[in-house]
């Protein structure tokens, strides 16, 4: 079927009172921006509480659906046929033609759902439903009406023009990007942090990311994996600026000067400090991590408290109460899992102690960190100064 037009449905933004127009404009902006990468020309318009995407040239249907289903704020995408209002007989003929082309002689039950958004339409909705239902039945003998539990609904929206559709493709949900500021994601090569970034981005937050690597202990391949993950997240979150920080000297300094069972926690405190510095420098209002209570030693509540202590910005931990399996499911759904499980070490795995502290106390940790005074500050400065920025 030759579809040229899509009706874009959005919900949460529809109830946002006077912010509604702002949210709609952000959504339109996102759609326009994302479709630039697709083959073909499109026009995106907002009329009377509806957003339409129209293909002005030849285009690739699957590519466009693939893009639209990754745009936050969209709850449904309806491929529609739009016809002029030439009276009810003409409408019946149009609906039958649409149904025949789409479903041929398939057997199914249906219910017509018409809606008069234009109240001056001369026929009441119930009568429109009856008339169109009858026309379908007469022309498609394998169909039946079922008003309680039909196989499909035939939607007919009577506006200036008339929209006909039977299918709503599920959208990504959430809120349009740009509606909730920007945050800095601590992105490792694991399963969790890409999911965490995706989840926060779904609430309309744009993201930057920071990755700490430790060459030569971590390979270029491990770094590439993080870039690949950032790319996957960016299909939803939009463009990501990835800050790559060389963490080797800092890690070695901690290794040389601090008790080994405290390595992970001290290292994580320095990661958070640097991430916060970058966040503030780049206009980010919060940090995001993939932490989840109890998943590993550095993610007990005590560890989280000690790590958190170095930050003044809010630290968003959207996975905090998730089971691993639930995280894996989202990772698979967003297409990150296969990349996340590639076996390239991240910098934490190399310097981990056999028996890391699981209930660190701040006073002991800060005491251990005193050994770093005078050594580590120039390293932190150097790490920030020599950051590599990759635009994803
Ligand atoms: P993930 O699956 O996201 O790697 P994880 O289960 O391996 O998480 P940790 O290694 O304890 O958990 O890391 C906790 C969080 O700290 C990560 O989710 C991520 O946000 C951040 N993080 C860890 N290592 C790095 C790194 N090398 N660069 C940037 N952020 C990191
Ligand atoms: Mg990890």
Main sheet: strands, sense, barrel: 9 strands, mixed
Cα shape: elongated
- The helix/strand order is EHEEHEHEHEEEEEHEHEHHEHEHHHHHE
By CATH reckoning, the class of the largest domain would read Alpha Beta
Bound molecules: adenosine-5'-triphosphate, magnesium ion
Specify the structural class: alpha/beta
CATH superfamily of the largest domain: HUPs
Q: How many strands appear in the DSSP assignment?
A: 15
CATH level-3 fold name of the largest domain: Rossmann fold
The residue-averaged pLDDT reads 93
Write up what this structure looks like.
With 392 residues, the protein is of the alpha/beta class. It has 2 domains: 5-170, VC0802-like, CATH 3.30.2130.30; 182-391, Rossmann fold (3-Layer(aba) Sandwich), CATH 3.40.50. Helix content is 40%, strand content 20%. The chain has helices at residues 20-35, 61-68, 88-103, 125-139, 192-201, 220-237, 248-257, 263-281, 301-308, 324-333, 337-340, 347-350, 362-369, 376-385; strands at residues 5-9, 42-47, 50-55, 76-83, 108-116, 143-145, 152-158, 162-165, 169-170, 182-186, 206-213, 241-246, 287-288, 315-316, 388-391. Strand 2 and strand 3 (50-55) form a beta hairpin. Helix 5 (192-201) runs parallel beside helix 6 (220-237) and helix 7 runs antiparallel to helix 8. The two termini are 36 Å apart. The structure holds adenosine-5'-triphosphate (ATP) and magnesium ion. Residues 186-188, 190-193, 210-212, 271, 289-291, 295-296, 298-299, 346-348 line the site of adenosine-5'-triphosphate.
